[in-house]
Amino acid sequence: MTDNMTRLDHVVLWVRDPVAAADFYEKAVGLEPVRLPEFAAGEEPFPSVRVNEEALLDLMPLSMAERMKMLPGAAESAGHPVNHVCLALPQGDFDTLLARLEERAVPVSDVSQGSFGARGEATRSFYFRDPDGNVIEARHYD
């Protein structure tokens, strides 16, 4: 990638309890929390979890939805969930994630094959929900 290439920077997920959400994403999904101590100390409005060196999932408190005023009408649509967010993982990390979720009794969908994504058809994929009901897809490519 080059510095002038368009990239996905972050996705905002609405959550009831950002600390609990960060804990889930760290322990069940394996993503590193960012700004969690600062959020807990009241110094930052929300924490995040790092997907990779270039992308974050922001864990926005649902209580902030009414304050979304970046565009006319934004407050009325804030808190509306996206359909799902997809994480592409190496095969070993995919298998580890599936096992970790099953250990924690997190319901997961059946594992499917051949779903289309940014890099073509995925070898395998499955879906699960975080504690706030956000749907996450995990997949790997060969």
**Total number of distinct structural domains:** 2
Quick one: biggest sheet? 4 strands, mixed
Counting DSSP E segments of at least 2 residues, the number of strands comes to 9
Reading the helices and strands in chain order gives: EHEHEEHEHEEEE
Work out the radius of gyration.
16 Å
The parts where pLDDT drops under 50 for at least 5 residues are: none
- Overall spatial form: globular
Distance between the termini: 20 Å
Helix content bin? 10-25%
Class inferred from helices and paired strands? alpha/beta
Query: Would you state the CATH class of the largest domain?
Result: Alpha Beta
Using the coordinates shown, work out and report the CATH topology of the largest domain: Signal recognition particle alu RNA binding heterodimer, srp9/1
Question: How would you state the average pLDDT, rounded?
Answer: 89
CATH architecture of the largest domain: 2-Layer Sandwich
Number of separate helices: 4
Pfam families: Glyoxalase
Protein name: VOC family protein
Organism: Streptomyces asoensis
Domain VOC: 7-141
Search tags:
142 residues, alpha/beta, Signal recognition particle alu RNA binding heterodimer, srp9/1, 2,3-Dihydroxybiphenyl 1,2-Dioxygenase, domain 1, four-stranded mixed sheet, three-stranded mixed sheet, 24% helix, 29% strand, Glyas_Bleomycin-R_OHBP_Dase, GlyoxalaseI/FosfomycinResist, Glyas_Fos-R_dOase_dom
Can you describe what's shown?
With 142 residues, this protein is an alpha/beta fold. It has two domains: 1-79, Signal recognition particle alu RNA binding heterodimer, srp9/1 (2-Layer Sandwich); 81-142, 2,3-Dihydroxybiphenyl 1,2-Dioxygenase, domain 1 (Roll). The chain is built from four helices and nine strands. The protein has helices at residues 18-29, 36-40, 74-77, 91-103; strands at 10-15, 32-34, 48-52, 55-61, 85-88, 116-117, 120-121, 124-129, 135-140. A four-stranded mixed sheet has the order 1-4-3-2, covered by helices on one side. A three-stranded mixed sheet has the order 5-9-8, covered by helices on one side. A two-stranded antiparallel ribbon has the order 6-7. The longest helix has 13 residues, at 91-103. The chain is globular, with a radius of gyration of 16 Å. It starts with 9 loop residues before the first strand and ends with a strand. The model has no long low-confidence stretch (mean pLDDT 89).
